Automatic annotation (TrEMBL):
InterPro entries in the cross-refs: ACP_syn_III_C, ACP_syn_III_N, FabH, Thiolase-like
Every Beta-ketoacyl-[acyl-carrier-protein] synthase III N-terminal domain range: 109-187
SUBUNIT field: Homodimer.
EC number from the UniProt entry: 2.3.1.180
Compartment list: Cytoplasm
The name this protein goes by in its record: Beta-ketoacyl-[acyl-carrier-protein] synthase III
Amino acid sequence: MFQSKARITAIGSYVPERRLTNDELEKRVDTSDEWIVQRTGIKERRIAAKAEFTSDVAYKAVINLTESYHKSVEDVDMIIVCTFSPDFQTPSTASLVQAKLGIKNTGALDLNAACAGFAYGLHVANSLITSGLHKKILVIGAETLSKILDYEDRTTCILFGDGAGAVLVEYDEETPSFISYHMGSLGEKAKNLYCSNTANAMFEESITHNGKIVQNGREVYKWAVTTVPKGMKKVMEQASMPLNAVDWFVPHSANLKMIESICEKSGFPIEKTLYSLVEYGNTSAASIPLSFAIGVKEKKLKTGDTLLLYGFGGGLTHAGMLIKWSVPELAIEN
């Protein structure tokens, strides 16, 4: 098994001010607060301002990180922004974040693995640092999904929200965070969750070509509740650890019913699961770091805790990893 040399040393988060409640959505589409809560667990979601984009929420998450943990990012040598709702096709959102932060000597790239993006971003950061190529990396999960939603489609508009979470990953050979991982892709089922761009067909099948998120929720649900429990098992087998050694399970916050089913099938207690969907909805690549932030705020996450993360979504892609929580107690209260 590989030996990581990378440690997560700080986290930050940001969500827009505007709240979009289930009651408000009742006025837009054929739905109700009761219907949404029973099927998804979501009560509200945050919506970015008209002139607020993914680079803005990503930047604000990093500022929260620096202020909360008294960290400098001037010497960061790589910025990875995990998103599928970038400001532009080019330049990268990471380059815009670099400019906003004023970091002079750093690489910058966007990573698109949709709702599994943050887990993939952590994997890449761990690889770059463990290899010795980099020493200090910002991994940011950020989305402004409200800008690519069809608010006449109740199958998607009730689910998604905007927000960002960031972590700082640094070289540390003595107390690394990363223990094991597992990932995969099932591109054959990509049509079940997509957002169109230049192509108007996928595998020679026509698609809805409107630049908005399209989802076959039933098929994604079936895939996730079978794939994730198997992946969790593989992560633990690679670490040679039993599942009951995990202190907290932090899955992508897609849907509470989905998370409950994953916990039931894997045999993990839902009471030891962190999620951010109740107040923020499905924030795709931002959902796991936003769950971190909630765990810190509620004083659930403790230094030394073992966390099992699992991202899953568009692609269809998935990625899980076992980490040791190594972020110190907050220097200031948020």
